[in-house]
Amino acid sequence: MPVIMGTAGHIDHGKTTLVKALTGIDCDRLSEEKKRGITIELGFAHLDLGGGSRLGIVDVPGHEKFVKNMVAGAAGVDFVTLIIAADEGIMPQTREHLEICQLLGVTTGIVALTKTDMVDAEWLEMVEEEVASYLEPTFLGGAPIVPVSAHTGEGLDALKDEIRALLKEFKPKRRSDLFRIPVDRVFTMKGHGTVITGTMISGSISVGEDVVLYPKEAPSKVRGLQSHGETVETAQAGRRTAVNLHGLEVDDVRRGDVLARPGSLFPSDVWDIELTVLESSHLPLKHRREIHFHHGAREVLARIYLLDRDELQPGETAVCQVRFTEPLAGVYDDRIVLRSFSPLRAFAGGRIVGPVGHKIKRFSDAVELLKQLSSDVPEEVAAAQLELAGPKGVTFNELLTMTNLQSKALEKTLGVLGGQQKAVLFDKDTRRYAGGDMAQALADSLLEYLEAFHKKDSMKPGVQRGELASSWGRELPPKLFHFIVERLLKKGDVVAEQEVLRLKDHKVSLASDQEKVRETVLGAYEKGGLTPPNLKDVLEPLGMDFKQAAPVFRLLQDQGQLVRVKDDMYYHGLALDSIKEKIIGFFADNQEMSAPDFKGLTGLSRKYLIPVLEYFDKEKLTVRVGDVRHLRKRS
Predict the structure, then answer these.
(1) How high is the mean pLDDT of the chain?
(2) What's the pLDDT tens digit per position in 191-239?
(3) Handedness of CA 34, 5, 55, 48 (dihedral sign)
(4) Is cis: bond before 172, omega within 30 of 0?
(5) Interhelix angle for 378-389 vs 396-403, to 10°?
(6) Is the pLDDT of residue 240 over 90?
(7) Is the pLDDT of residue 33 over 50?
(8) DSSP strand pairing (230-232 vs 218-227)
(9) What span, in angstroms and rounded, lies between the C-alpha atoms of 19 and 68?
(10) Which of 189-203, 262-276, 550-564 has the highest mean pLDDT?
(11) What is the pLDDT of residues 303-357, one digit of tens each?
């Protein structure tokens, strides 16, 4: 598997000179770098170690003014060679670079004591002891310390042997299959156009593929690829890669932009992060503090929001949020570094746990759920991401960035969560998932809503599906609303009668006096047949006005026993059914029907004739064309 080594160390301790001695490649390419004798920008080289093994090398600047460039280079390395000049020993940038590597999650490396030709044996032995003692409590504690002179060549073979030994035992962290290259350099090549370079963090890419530059989401296509200076058709993760892009100008690209596939990253102006303040920091990190924020090759100003405290003390770790003035594109477990304004130095760092930040109130219960994102168990992380996403849910592609799992691993994880009722797929078209606990809470809420609905109006058989969607479900994605309803229908907790939904145990119930009203009203309209009585004549014997009788009328309409034809005109359902049958029968032998035809068919007077004709027009049984009507064709 390809591996990237980074250099680290104080200015003028010989990082670039050592890389050149090892590889033959001069990483100082800028005229200003050669003129001043210091590294300003990142440099890149490769070292052939035999047996087809090639090591990528990122050479970083040591000057304190260019630490941001050092962070950009160190962000993609697998291990570090800490370079310390034997004639000076440990210096300020030695300490800061070491801390930055620690914050970026580097866990192993080698120490090169350079410029050994400048000191005697006794001094060299003393410096070795000093360095070993200083590094003991760090991730480089016990690491090989190799004396070397780039000037004389002494120790170079020993250093290469130590690198080979490290690579033999080294196990790079598992990479996802999400293709990403953070851009650390952009330039133009004559006859080729725009070229970007960076360390491919994960995935692979081939010539001809469509790509997008994030966060601005500028589309492009891969015209050509180089990996460690060699032209290739496909480039793999863990290698320094140059990509020739079609359709983008140099001015379209900024250091820190990320090249990835279309629809694979989701820029956000809020991230959830796990943050640790270095023990060497003199001051705590306060809520809402503005800082220099480093991610990949990008440096931006940002503000930290602590969620469960007002200060984060040196040595402490907490899950918090960072907010930007413009969206950035990140992935779960990406490393981050915070640098203060004064003094300008690294004082905290950690990793992303939520690349699409959630709306979290300080000191709320959701903060505890947010802490679950720090888990090493993929199922716990995915379950927490789903619950924090709320009703809008999360797509499969979004979950890839929110867990940093490979596609197959994420599918397996979602399968496990589905079996545990902790994840539900509610939109198969977009592969959108929701948290199982949230889905259950929504189902319980819907049952409570229907219970309250029935209690408020016990004479209604239920609530129309559309009405339920626009009331109880107004804040939900339509497909999630449909999923919750269908789930309750499948379980039998809710019953559907056409488009009316009700609880399984709900039955329309009338008080004894209302039952008497129902019988009287229904009897009057049943007796009226095709010439129903006036509403006033029905209600007067009961000593009621329509407002008092309205619940009974609504019930009879919901049951289909009464039909409102127009204003105060009601028909018994069976009477209208008989008229409908007559109309259909008429059109079996006729193409059109006039008002006189309808009168002859039914015997209705004009008082009833016109309202009934218009009713069937409205019901789309008939359609009026001039003075006649046709049977509406069924689609």
Answers:
(1) 89
(2) 788 999 888 888 999 999 999 999 999 999 999 999 877 899 999 887 8
(3) positive
(4) no
(5) 130
(6) no
(7) no
(8) antiparallel
(9) 21
(10) 262-276
(11) 999 999 999 999 999 999 999 999 999 999 999 999 898 777 889 999 999 999 8
Query: Which residue type occupies 249?
Result: E
> Which residue, among 354, 364, 269, 274, has the nearest Cα to 319 in the 3D structure?
274
Structure tokens at 326: 């413009």
Pure H helices in 390-534: 396-403, 407-419, 436-456, 465-470, 478-491, 512-528
d(CA 239, CA 230): 11
Q: What is the 3-state secondary structure (H, E, C) of 238-261?
A: CCEEEEEEECCCHHHCCCCCEEEC
Q: Is residue 225 within 8 Å of residue 242, measured between CB atoms?
A: yes
Cβ atoms of 243 and 181 closer than 8 Å: yes
pLDDT over 90 percentage in the chain:
67
Tokens at 543, concatenated: 């000593």
- β-bridge mates for residue 48, sequence order: 54
d(CA 392, CA 386): 10
User: Does pLDDT of 157 surpass 50?
Assistant: yes
Distance CA(404)–CA(499), nearest Å, equals: 43
Strands 109-114 and 432-435: unpaired
Q: Report how far residue 369's alpha carbon sits from residue 364's, in angstroms, rounded to the nearest whole number.
A: 10
Q: Which amino acid is residue 450, in one-letter code?
A: L
- Residue 42 pLDDT grade (very low, low, confident, very high; cuts 50, 70, 90): low
Give the Cβ contact number of residue 13 at 10 Å: 27
Instruction: Report how far residue 199's alpha carbon sits from residue 3's, in angstroms, rounded to the nearest whole number.
Output: 10
Number of H helices, E strands in the chain: 19, 35
